[in-house]
């Protein structure tokens, strides 16, 4: 057994040291606060040079990083390599911080008076991240926070801590000044310590909606900036004018990829018009050929299995039963196969709640407007996709569907690093999302200087 280590003030320390978890967090925040005073004065062009080295190390160690990520998460190595690629893109994007941080100016705003705005770092930021993308999600935050001049603490998921530890071993090789980046392991106790810590000015969070709301409320109570990305229940609408053959693979990848443990997983399909019978048959055939990896834990498997039982009890028709795969492993592993329910009604819990497993619900709508209404009734609004060959349908969908990440014939509509990533309603607490321009806004304060020279 290997003990996890925290990285505090440039040193690795055992997470089971003599200090209680809260004190370890407080030490990390004190070291980050101390480092901030000097780090904020390092020119931004020099700050990003550390990230160039970090990018190079991430690229050189992709394979090992992917192995660690797959080993602790259970996702395939290709999936891990994919998320590492997306994480590296965030680091690359943050290399543009010198221009992203630029302010603006206007001369003669009044007689003899000029105004200029400048963006400045704010202080110590913390990120609290989920299990499902152990590499990519920490990298949604760390590069932007530090290149804009803040110092940073990561509290990764306690279910996937080793990927974060490896990422920090690479950061250690970048020779950043001590205290600029810190890693503290733990769960709720450390999260509460972060929220209550006076040195920490802001928190970036990704996880379930219940915890996201808690983080947002408690963080705000302690006067922090908070961006809290929550859970999802994503819809995929299939119109009869869609290319069904090509759409089927995209639909199944979205629903069953990563065993449904993605915040962008399409969990509900709404068939509109005459495509329904063909779609249903095609989905079952394709899903039967898919082998899902395990879900994250035995407790999570039980949760997914209980949703399947609930779906049956609520009167949905089980077209494909993924529990058989669990039976094959004699309940000794966390595998559940692709599961498809038909005749699902919007009021059923399997249609409303986030299951975060390989369970797909099939529903019907009379027309596109009715499908959009069904999407908009959900308390979540993370992502939605429309499969169609009509530009007019795509325009209507883009205009009226509420989720903030929309796909047109794209089952996993993940924005690239240069766009903001995140939803609205119960999928986001706060107003600024991860990445893109929102990251710069979240991690900087805009100062406006109004000047007159006598
Ligand atoms: P989770 O909410 O259980 O945990 C997320 C983080 O919060 C972890 O670091 C954990 O230690 C901490 N935490 C857990 N319970 C807590 C509590 N009671 N008090 C304080 N902190 C607590 O989420 P998870 O299971 O790790 O991840 C899956 C969830 O994340 C899903 O709901 C998924 O939709 C969501 N997610 C959302 C996005 C997005 O972009 N919106 C991206 C990825 C995952």
TrEMBL record:
Matches recorded under Pfam families: Aldedh
Residue ranges annotated for the Aldehyde dehydrogenase domain, each copy included: 23-449
InterPro entries cross-referenced by the UniProt entry: Ald_DH/histidinol_DH, Ald_DH_C, Ald_DH_CS_CYS, Ald_DH_N, Aldehyde_DH_dom, MeMal-semiAld_DH
Enzyme class per UniProt: oxidoreductase
Highest taxon listed in the record's lineage: Bacteria
Alphabetically ordered keywords of this record: NAD, Oxidoreductase
EC number: 1.2.1.27
Protein name as catalogued: methylmalonate-semialdehyde dehydrogenase (CoA acylating)
Natural source organism: Sulfobacillus acidophilus
